[in-house]
Each structure stands twice: as C-alpha cells, then as structure tokens.
Specification:
Layout (H helix, E strand, L loop, with lengths): L2 H26 L2 H21 L9 H13 L3 H5 L2 H15 L3 H14 L4 H13 L3 H14 L4 H13 L3 H14 L4 H42 L7 H10 L1
Helix pairs in contact: 2-3, 2-5, 3-5, 5-6, 5-7, 6-7, 7-8, 7-9, 8-9, 9-10, 9-11, 10-11
Length: 247
C-alpha cells in the first residue's frame, strides 16, 4: 500500500478534528454558561486576592470589591447554587470595612442577609460597620443576632463586648468577653477585653457606691436641718384672736 496515501488520510483527519472541535465548543458553551463562568471567575479572583492579604499589611481591597461587583453584574445563577453568593457578600462587606466604607458595608451585608438571614458572619460585619458609624445600639442588635445564630463565634462575642463596654454596660461586657474566652481560650483580644471590662465594672460600682453615700449624707443633712432649724408655723388669725380673748 502506498505510504503517501496514509499520510494524506492522516493529515485530512487531523484537519477535520481541528476544524470541527472549535465548532463543537462554541455550540456547547452557550452564552448562559459563559456568563456563569465569568461570574465564578471574578468571584474566585476576588477570594484569592483576599486570601493573600496579610493582616496589618497592604492589600488591594479596592480591586477585590471591583471583582465582586463584576461577578454580581454577571449571571450569578451558579454562585447561588453553590452558596458562592454568600461568600461573595461576606468577602465584599469585609473588604469595604477594611476600606472604611462603612455605609457601603452595611448595604452589602443587608443584601446578603436578604438571601441568608441567619448568617452569623454577615450580621457581625453589619454590626461592626454600624459601630464604626457610631450607631452603637443598632450595632449591638446585629451582634446579638450574630451570636444567636452561632454561639461559638468568637469575633462576634468580642465585638459585642467592645460595644457594651463603649456603652458603659460593663457587667454585660464581662459576660460577652467571658464567652469569647470559652470559645477561644488563647484569644488575646478576648483576654484584654475581659480585663478592661472588669476594671470598668469595678470603677463603675465604686462610683455608684460613692454617689449613693453622698446622696444619703445630703438627704440626712436636709432632714436634720429641717427638724432643727425650721421656724414653727405662724398661728392662723382665728387662733390669735382666741388666745387674746382668753387673756
């Protein structure tokens, strides 16, 4: 058999494979699938970027936020099926907090909570952003939600203790930090927070005791003065006339 014929047949087969394969790919990869892949790709890039950030170091949080936004602007069907959308809102709100964009972080957390209302991390992120905005009461309510859905969420317990201390509610803060120490016995922030809260509680108790003593002394002084130095009441005109007639 002529070897040249085999070479020609093989060449024709390879050309056919190379020609047909792209057509099959284009047919199989619909625009919907392509959009899903794009959203997942943006999400993965953002997650990888955040994972590479070193605490206390520099990190391109702005780029991470931009990637999350691009993912949200794409078809998020696949992300929703895998709960990736939950991690997206968690990551985006965290990045916004790091950028000190606290109002944006609250909005992002709320968007995530609309889909996952029992997620402890989103409630914690929202609480921290609200706390930084000076909305301590709302922050405390968010932290309460967070630890309700996850009783072992150390960071939420610490943040809750922080806001309670800020509000001067030291006894409750002590309880929050104590719980944080139970969930993570070697957490320095929980230990320092508990120590400070106990100091604040002791000082608050001492202050209240001093104020109570001062108030008691003041009331006693007023009563003594009233009993000792008050002038007797003047007799009524009728009484005066009656007394004069007896004389």
């Amino acid at each position: 058999m002529d070897i040249g014929k085999y070479v020609i047949i093989l060449a024709v087969f390879l050309v056919a494979v190379l020609t047909v394969q792209p057509v099959l790919s284009a047919t199989t990869m619909t625009s919907d699938n392509l959009e899903k892949d794009i959203a997942t790709s943006y999400f993965n890039q953002a997650q990888k970027l955040l994972a590479s950030c070193v605490p206390g170091g520099t990190c391109d949080y702005e780029m991470a936020i931009s990637l999350y936004d691009k993912a949200l602007a794409s078809n998020t069907t696949m992300l929703k099926k895998t709960d990736g959308i939950l991690y997206l809102y968690q990551g985006k709100s965290y990045a916004q907090i790091e950028q000190e964009k606290y109002s944006d972080a609250v909005a992002t957390a709320d968007a995530g909570l609309a889909l996952y209302p029992d997620d402890a991390m989103l409630w914690n992120n929202k609480g921290y952003a609200l706390q930084r905005l000076g909305k301590t009461q709302d922050a405390l309510a968010s932290y309460d939600k967070s630890v309700t859905f996850d009783r072992n969420y150390t960071i939420a317990h610490i943040n809750r203790g922080d806001v309670l201390s800020q509000m001067g509610r030291y006894t409750e803060a002590v309880a929050a930090y104590t719980r944080a120490n139970e969930t993570d016995p070697f957490n320095i922030a929980a230990y320092e927070g508990l120590k400070a809260a106990k100091t604040g509680e002791a000082e608050s108790t001492r202050t209240m005791t001093i104020l109570s003593v001062i108030i008691l002394i003041a009331i006693t002084g007023i009563v003594v003065w009233y009993l000792k130095f008050r002038k007797p009441a003047e007799p009524a005109p009728e009484e005066k006339k009656a007394k004069s007639k007896k004389k």
